[in-house]
Specification:
38% of the residues lie in helices and 18% in strands. The protein contains five helices and five strands, in the order αβββαβαβαα. Strand 2 (40-43) and strand 3 (49-52) form a beta hairpin.
C-alpha cells in the first residue's frame, strides 16, 4: 500500500512540476441547509453527505456531531493522512499512526456574551501516537511536524485565511 501512495505522490509532484499553472484551483463546494432545529445537512458535488447538530445546552438536540467536533475530526483525519503519506514517501515500513485532536473553547464567544472572547477555539492540541519499523522518536517527531505543517485543514485553522461573505435571496 505505501508503495502505491509513494508512486501516486511522485506522479502528482512530477505533473505539477510540468504544469505549475494547474496547481491552484477552487475546491469543491460544501452546501449546507437547515433541517429544523439546529440540525444541518451538508452535501457535496459527488454525493458526499454530513449531518451536524448543536448540543442541547445551546438549543440543539445533540442528534449528530457538532460542527466544532467535525472541524477537530477533519484536522485529525487530515494529519493522519499526511503522516501516512510522508511515511510512504520516506519508504518506512510498519508505519502506524493514531491522531487525536482536542481544543479549548469559551462559550461566551459563540453566544456573543463577550465581544473580546473569540467564538472559535482558543487553542488546539494535536496528539500523535506513531511507530515504524526501526524508527526512533526523533524520526517520528519529524513526520508529525511535517504532517501538521502540510495538512491543509490544520493550516486553515492556524493561519488567518481570508473569508469572503456573499449574501443572496433564497
Amino acid at each position: 500500500m505505501s508503495e502505491s501512495i509513494r508512486a501516486a505522490m511522485e506522479r502528482a509532484a512530477q505533473y505539477l512540476a510540468d504544469h505549475p499553472d494547474e496547481a491552484r484551483y477552487t475546491d469543491s463546494v460544501a452546501r449546507a441547509r437547515g433541517e429544523g432545529g439546529l440540525r444541518v445537512v451538508v452535501e457535496g458535488p459527488a454525493g458526499e453527505r454530513l449531518e451536524t447538530d448543536m448540543p442541547p445546552a445551546v438549543g440543539g438536540a445533540g442528534s449528530a456531531p457538532s460542527p466544532g467536533w467535525v472541524l477537530r475530526a477533519a484536522v485529525a483525519a487530515c494529519v493522519t493522512s499526511l503522516a501516512m503519506m510522508r511515511a510512504a514517501h520516506l519508504g518506512l515500513t510498519g508505519f502506524v499512526c493514531e491522531v487525536e485532536v482536542d481544543s479549548e473553547s469559551d462559550d461566551r464567544g459563540i453566544l456573543g456574551l463577550d465581544p473580546s472572547t473569540p467564538s472559535g477555539p482558543l487553542s488546539v492540541r494535536v496528539g500523535l501516537r506513531m511507530a515504524a519499523d526501526g524508527q526512533g522518536l526523533d524520526r517520528l517527531e519529524e513526520i508529525a511536524v511535517w504532517a501538521v505543517d502540510h495538512c491543509p485543514v490544520s493550516d486553515a485553522v492556524r493561519r488567518g485565511v481570508p473569508v469572503h461573505i456573499e449574501v443572496s435571496e433564497a
